[in-house]
Structures are given as structure tokens and as C-alpha cells.
């Protein structure tokens, strides 16, 4: 319960995913305590009668007795080489931490979401008919998939509004389109979503200037709020410089292993007409720049004057110039404007018009202009990818006022891992305080807490063997382990104290307690391991999200149980000797003259 309390109180995504698990486990623990102190004794009084199968009991006892004899002999040898065992276990722990270089970090494990979404962008200037033709052609490729359930295609500007277009969840203009396919569930198909996406890429028509990007559906549905796993945000004041730096960055990272679908948020600008208002002339006619801009916009884009119903739908009545009067740049130049004194002038009387290419959009964050470089990741942990990206960009220097930040899934991962790290530290403090109150000692809880790093050895080895990265579920497994593995140490040290209080010598008490508690320690550990193994090796839909937690708990418990049986007694002997020696020295100083 102490382990889950900090997780429940964690902020952000860590708290969101921890709360359901914490509530379930804590409720189960309270129920198990009630059953253990009420129902179990009643059932045991009936089942554990004197009449029992002595043959089975004898055979079971013989097997366990042999194991106890072997363990006792090994433990005696361990206690003779206490320091060697302790330092060896510390060395193994340090080596296991170095395995992080092999596993890497990631936000959430790759999840096979039965959905494929493609965002396509054709060269600026492509008309709607051509965009629809290309979208239909690619849509037919989606329709040819044997795993598809249905295919949704959207072409042109989003009917849902500019917000959806800006977020990339809908096509952003007449040259953009989106195609989404719902696939059958994982159990009903032979290929994973990633394999299907790879096949689709090979079939897309090679059009000059066309950009095809698959959305990270797994990241979005597992709690990610970013458009892409990798986001490099470049800040500065000059858009042209930002574009040049962005192109330089993409050139340096495009060959990083795992990077794919690399794109820059700033796109080739649209041809546009810029109206430069002469404010003095405009003021002479009683006009302002804003008023002139609004009148030109209404003339060419139109203004909604009302609505009428067609087949139950409301249709806008838009008033604007005739097609013949808004066809060329000269038509813009000759736009009539109502001036002061009921006079009518033309735009050319108060402004000049020139043509240029303007950006499709200007991104800002914290009131600063930015350009974002985005990329997806394939078959590699995001921590490893960002590590290589930073290495490739380490020599890149920016002038004053220009800098980069890493966002996307990587930024979410850092924030969540930080929250879970704080929860882990808080859990360790709570566990220590509870044990210190239970044992009325400050040193014995330290001995028991040593089981936690012993469990981390198994966590890291298990992740490496299973080919997994240290993700949020795996980190949650580490926190859960902290509350499980200490139980073995508590059972052992508590019995050692009882034997010593009854007059047993320290080493004799250690051996007797360890051998006596061997069976309950093995049984409790084995039942927990067997309970989480299905989670670790499940292949059902969404099992990828739970597997790291199962691997962390099961593998961590294996190493912790085995090493606890030898390391905890050795550490107890060393710490107890140091504590008694220190106590004697303090007493000697305080009462030496008496």
C-alpha cells in the first residue's frame, strides 16, 4: 500500500495510468487481509487435521529437507565470505544498470493498434481535383488490403475547422488529404500494423514534391499527446534562417537508425498578392489599412449574407464578386472602395500590389517563432534515437536568439519518468519508515531494503533477454517490486530477531532462521512469479502494453529471491557487527570515566 500511495499522488500521465492499478491492488490487499485473519484460520482448522496422507507429507518433506540441507551448507560458506558476497552483488547491480545502454528508454512499448492513418501533402498549387485523383488512387491501395475493415478518405481543407488542420488530424488545404483504414484485430490477421504500413509505402505513386506521413496511432492511443515521437523545435526570429537551420538539421539526422517520415513544419509558400497600403493616401480618403483589407477579403472570398435550407441542411449564402471580376491580379488592383464623402475609389489609388510567396503558417510557442522537425521511429527505442540525434547535432552552433528544444514523445517520456522516479524514491522512504517502526531499529530496515537493488538486477536482465526497453510500464513494475521483495527480507530478519531474543548466537540464528523460512519465501515468490507470467508472455491485442510490467516483476522477483537468501544474511552479519561496535564505542565515551 505504501508503494502505491506515491504513484496515486503522481501528476500527469504517470498518475493517470497508476491510479486504476493502485486502486485495484489496494482493494485486493484489504480484502486478502480480512480473509487471512478470519476465513483462512477457520478453513485451516478443518483441513489440517491429524489424519492426513503421511506418505505424501513424508515425500514432500524429504524433498524440502534435501533442499534445506544444501541451502544451509551454501549459507555457511557465504557467511564465511560475507564481504566478498556483498561486494560481488553490488558489482552485479552496477553492471545491470549499465544494461540501460542496451535497452534504452521509451515512453510506452510499441503497441499494435488496428488502425493505419496516412496524411498526404501534394505540391503547393495542386488543385482539388488533382488532389482527389491522387487520394482516390492511394485509397484503392488501402482497399486492396486483405486485413482492412473499412477505409475513410478526406480530401481538401478540413470541414471540422482550422484547429484540426493545424494539429494534423485532418487535411490542411486543397493539396492535402487523409486516408484512414480500420484493420481487423490482431488475432484475426497474420501481419502487424507496422508490416502493413511498410507494404503500403512501397505501393504509393512516386510523385515529385509529394509527402506521405503515417500518424503514430499507437502513441496517440496510449496517452501520447504529440503528433510525432521525435520533435525538434527550433526557435528564432527570422523565418528564413529558421528554415535554413531546419534543413541543415534534417540533413544531419536523416541517416540516424530508426528515423523515418522526416518532415519540416514550414512548407514551401503559396503564391500570394501582397497589398501595401499607403497610409497617408488612405487617411486622405478616410480609410484605414484594416478596413481596406476587410473590403478586399469580402470582395474575393465573400461574406455570408444568410442561409437557406436544402434537404434539411443549412447552406450559406455567400456574396462576392463575379468570377469574371476576381480572376486576375489586375482585378485586385481595380477593387472599388467606398471612401469618405460617398465617393468610390479603386485599390490602386491608395495601395500597391505585388506578388510573392508566403508561408502557409507561422508557428509560435511562448511568443517566439519556431520551426518543428518531426519524425516517426521504426524498430528502435526513442531514447536511443534521441541519443544519436543529439550526438549528430552536438557540433551545430546557433547565433544568439536561436536554440533548439526536444519535444514530442521524448519530452513526455522524460516528464513521466521523472514523476515515476520521484514516486519510487517516496515509496522507498515510506517502506523504510514502516520497517523502522516495526523493528524499532534503523539498521535492520537498511539490510532488508538491500533486496530492492537485487531485484533491479533481474529487471534489467529480463528486459534485455525479452528485447524490451525501459518504458513506463516497466518502471511501474520496478516500483511494485519494491513493495514485494522486501517481504522476503522481513520474514527472514523477523525470525532472526526472535531467535536471538531467545538466546541464540548470531550466526546460528541466521542459519536457522534462513533455513526455517526457506519454504515460505520460495512459496510466496513462486506464486507471485507464476501469477504475472501470463502477463509477461501474452500475445493478445494490447498485450504489448502490459508485458514490460510482467517481465519486470517476474524477473526481478527471481533474482531478488535467490540473492536475498544469501546476501541478506551476510549483510545482516556485517551491519550488526558495525552497529554493535559503534554502540560500544559511544557507550565507552559516554560512561568511560564511571
Set out the fold topology.
Layout: H1 4-9, H2 12-37, H3 39-47, H4 54-80, H5 82-98, H6 100-103, E1 115-121, H7 128-143, E2 148-155, H8 162-167, E3 176-183, H9 193-203, E4 211-214, H10 217-221, E5 230-235, H11 239-253, E6 259-264, E7 270-277, H12 279-284, H13 289-300, E8 303-310, E9 313-319, H14 329-333, E10 336-338, E11 344-346, E12 351-358, E13 363-365, E14 368-377, H15 382-393, E15 403-407, H16 408-439, H17 444-449, H18 451-466, H19 472-501, H20 506-516, H21 518-537, H22 543-591
Antiparallel strand pairs: 1-3, 1-4, 2-3, 5-14, 5-15, 6-14, 7-12, 8-9, 10-11, 13-14
Helix pairs in contact: 2-16, 4-20, 4-22, 5-18, 5-22, 16-19, 18-19, 18-22, 19-20, 19-22, 21-22
Tally of DSSP β-strands:
15
Classify the oligomer. Answer: single chain
The Cα radius of gyration reads 35 Å
> What structural category arises from helix and sheet content?
alpha+beta
Query: In what range is the share of β-strand residues?
Result: 15-25%
Q: Point out poorly predicted stretches.
A: 158-171
Please report the number of helical segments: 22
Largest sheet: 5 strands, antiparallel
Shape assignment: elongated
CATH topology grouping of the largest domain: Alpha-Beta Plaits
What is the architecture of the largest domain at the second tier of CATH?
2-Layer Sandwich
Distance between the termini: 49 Å
Helix content: 55-70%
CATH homologous superfamily of the largest domain, by name? Multidrug efflux transporter AcrB pore domain
Amino acid at each position: 500500500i505504501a508503494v502505491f500511495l506515491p504513484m496515486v499522488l503522481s501528476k500527469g500521465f504517470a498518475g493517470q495510468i497508476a491510479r486504476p492499478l493502485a486502486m485495484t491492488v489496494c482493494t485486493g490487499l484489504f480484502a486478502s487481509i480480512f480473509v487471512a485473519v478470519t476465513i483462512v484460520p477457520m478453513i485451516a482448522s478443518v483441513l489440517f487435521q491429524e489424519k492426513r496422507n503421511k506418505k505424501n507429507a513424508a515425500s514432500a518433506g524429504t524433498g524440502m529437507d534435501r533442499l534445506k540441507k544444501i541451502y544451509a551448507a551454501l549459507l555457511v560458506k557465504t557467511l564465511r565470505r560475507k564481504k566478498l558476497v556483498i561486494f560481488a552483488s553490488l558489482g552485479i547491480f552496477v553492471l545491470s544498470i549499465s544494461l540501460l545502454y542496451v535497452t534504452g528508454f521509451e515512453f510506452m512499448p510499441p503497441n499494435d493498434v488496428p488502425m493505419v492513418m496516412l496524411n498526404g501533402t501534394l505540391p503547393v498549387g495542386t488543385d482539388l481535383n488533382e488532389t482527389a485523383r491522387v487520394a482516390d488512387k492511394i485509397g484503392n491501395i488501402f482497399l486492396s488490403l486483405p486485413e482492412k475493415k473499412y477505409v475513410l478518405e478526406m480530401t481538401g481543407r478540413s470541414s471540422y475547422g482550422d484547429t484540426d488542420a493545424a494539429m494534423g488530424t485532418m487535411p490542411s488545404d486543397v493539396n492535402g488529404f487523409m486516408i484512414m483504414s480500420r484493420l481487423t484485430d490482431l488475432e484475426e490477421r497474420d501481419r502487424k500494423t507496422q508490416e502493413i504500413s511498410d507494404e503500403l509505402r512501397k505501393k504509393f505513386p512516386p510523385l515529385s514534391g509529394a509527402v506521405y506521413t503515417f500518424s503514430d496511432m499507437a502513441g496517440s492511443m496510449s496517452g501520447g499527446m504529440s503528433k510525432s515521437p521525435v520533435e525538434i523545435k527550433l526557435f528564432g526570429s527570422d523565418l528564413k534562417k529558421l528554415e535554413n537551420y531546419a534543413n541543415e538539421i534534417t540533413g544531419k539526422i536523416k541517416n540516424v537508425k530508426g528515423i523515418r517520415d522526416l518532415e519540416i513544419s514550414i512548407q514551401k509558400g503559396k503564391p500570394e498578392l501582397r497589398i501595401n497600403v499607403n497610409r497617408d493616401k488612405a487617411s486622405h480618403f478616410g480609410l484605414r489599412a484594416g478596413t481596406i483589407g476587410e473590403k478586399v477579403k469580402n470582395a474575393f472570398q465573400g461574406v455570408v449574407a444568410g442561409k437557406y435550407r436544402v434537404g434539411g441542411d443549412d447552406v450559406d449564402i455567400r456574396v462576392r464578386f463575379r468570377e469574371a471580376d476576381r480572376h486576375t491580379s489586375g482585378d485586385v488592383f481595380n477593387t472599388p472602395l467606398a471612401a469618405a464623402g460617398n465617393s468610390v475609389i479603386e485599390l490602386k489609388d491608395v495601395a500597391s500590389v505585388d506578388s510573392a510567396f508566403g508561408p502557409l503558417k507561422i508557428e509560435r510557442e511562448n511568443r517566439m517563432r519556431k520551426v518543428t522537425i518531426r519524425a516517426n521511429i521504426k524498430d528502435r527505442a526513442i531514447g536511443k534515437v534521441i541519443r544519436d540525434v543529439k550526438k549528430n547535432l552536438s557540433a551545430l552552433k546557433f547565433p544568439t536568439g536561436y536554440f533548439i528544444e526536444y519535444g514530442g514523445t521524448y519530452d513526455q517520456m522524460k516528464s513521466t519518468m521523472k514523476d515515476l522516479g520521484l514516486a519510487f524514491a517516496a515509496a522507498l522512504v515510506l517502506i523504510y519508515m514502516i520497517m523502522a517502526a516495526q523493528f524499532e531499529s534503523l539498521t535492520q530496515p537498511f539490510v532488508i531494503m538491500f533486496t530492492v537493488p537485487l531485484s533491479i538486477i533481474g529487471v534489467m536482465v529480463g528486459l534485455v533477454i525479452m528485447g524490451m526497453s525501459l518504458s513506463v510500464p516497466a518502471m511501474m513494475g520496478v516500483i511494485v517490486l519494491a513493495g514485494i521483495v522486501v517481504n522476503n527480507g522481513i520474514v527472514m530478519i523477523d525470525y532472526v530477531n526472535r531467535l536471538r531474543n531467545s538466546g541464540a548466537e548470531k550466526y546460528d540464528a541466521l542459519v536457522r532462521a534462513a533455513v526455517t523460512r526457506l519454504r515460505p519465501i520460495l512459496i510466496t515468490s513462486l506464486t507471485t512469479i507464476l501469477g504475472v507470467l501470463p502477463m509477461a508472455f501474452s500475445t493478445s491485442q494490447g498485450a504489448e502494453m502490459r508485458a514490460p510490467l510482467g517481465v519486470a516483476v517476474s524477473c526481478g522477483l527471481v533474482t531478488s529471491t535467490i540473492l536475498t537468501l544469501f546476501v541478506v544474511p551476510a549483510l545482516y552479519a556485517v551491519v550488526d557487527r558495525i552497529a554493535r561496535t559503534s554502540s560500544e564505542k559511544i557507550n565507552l565515551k559516554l560512561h568511560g570515566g564511571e
